[in-house]
Amino acid sequence: MNIKTNSNEKCNYALQDLYHVDDPEIGLNIVDLGLLYEMYFDEVDNKLMCIMTLTTQFCPMGDAITTDTRASLAKSFPDWEVTVNLTFDPAWNFSMISPEGRTFLGR
């Protein structure tokens, strides 16, 4: 997992809840899938911006995954404005799955 962030402490705190956000088609959480790219914390204005991807641009569960991600971050940071943006650059690939995720998937 290689998430760019300006606050490792806040990012690690956010990840505790994000481990419970699953890709429903795969059954693996978005952290171990490697779908999270960046988390930026603006502590002055209490804004959190998350940049993530999906396994494919045409993921039928994309809206559900981003909605669950936003809800999870809002739970972790209830007084913050949370934004979740999707990117497909770089495109997700199997090598982004964590060792724990690979074990879960039997690979």
Task: Give a quick rundown of the structure.
The chain has 107 residues and is α/β, with parallel strands linked by helices. 35% of the residues lie in helices and 23% in strands. Strands 1-4-5-6 form a four-stranded mixed sheet.
Which descriptors would you attach to this protein?
single chain, alpha/beta, GMP Synthetase, Chain A, domain 3, 4-stranded mixed beta sheet, two-stranded antiparallel sheet, 4 helices
Structure description:
The chain is α/β, with parallel strands linked by helices. The protein has one domain: GMP Synthetase, Chain A, domain 3 (2-Layer Sandwich). It is built from four helices and six strands. A four-stranded mixed beta sheet has the order 1-4-5-6. The protein has a two-stranded antiparallel sheet with strand order 2-3. Helix 1 (8-18) packs across helix 3. It is globular, with a radius of gyration of 13 Å. The model has no long low-confidence stretch (mean pLDDT 96).
Question: Helices, strands, pairings?
Answer:
Elements: E1 4-5, H1 8-18, E2 22-23, E3 28-29, H2 30-33, E4 36-42, E5 47-52, H3 62-76, E6 81-86, H4 99-105
Parallel strand pairs: 1-4, 5-6
Antiparallel strand pairs: 2-3, 4-5
Helix pairs in contact: 1-3
Percentage of residues assigned to helices: 25-40%
Report the mean per-residue pLDDT as an integer: 96
Number of strands: 6
- The chain-level structural class is alpha/beta
Major beta sheet summary: 4 strands, mixed
Rg value:
13 Å
Can you tell me the CATH class?
A: Alpha Beta
Strand order of the largest sheet: 1-4-5-6
- The CATH topology is GMP Synthetase, Chain A, domain 3
Beta-strand portion reads 15-25%
Report how far apart the termini are.
Answer: 17 Å
Uncertain ranges: none
CATH superfamily: Fe-S cluster assembly (FSCA)
Estimate the global geometry from the Cα principal axes.
Answer: globular
H/E series, N to C? EHEEHEEHEH
Helix tally? Answer: 4
**CATH architecture annotation:** 2-Layer Sandwich
**Whole-number tally of structural domains:** 1
